[in-house]
């Protein structure tokens, strides 16, 4: 069963820094294409100067700038410990300041969901194209 396609409305997503693993990013794009969903994707590159600096404000500002014009923020499960520095700033920017919806994607059903995501995600979905696309469309549609 496939959800109804909304070809006339482009979506712009910010993917959490945890998606900087090229393989995970490619798998995500491929998964979305199964639903014929091709959003514009923003991500803070590891090469961005704010990532190299010790200045936490510069990093936060760079994250906030990337998130500002996005319809939704997509977080990847299983990466919180490794990328907590970025994820905390992403959550503050998108939830507290910019009021962007957060979709948490759990790659493995057995994967524990960190409390911070239970607390801040608008929805938690499994690694399933239809569920992910439906969540994005529903949450981003609230803001339209």
Automatic annotation (TrEMBL):
**Keywords of the record:** Receptor
Name of the protein in question: Toll/interleukin-1 receptor domain-containing protein
Domain Thoeris protein ThsB TIR-like positions: 14-110
Classify the source by domain of life: Bacteria
UniProt keyword annotation of Aminoacyl-tRNA synthetase present: no
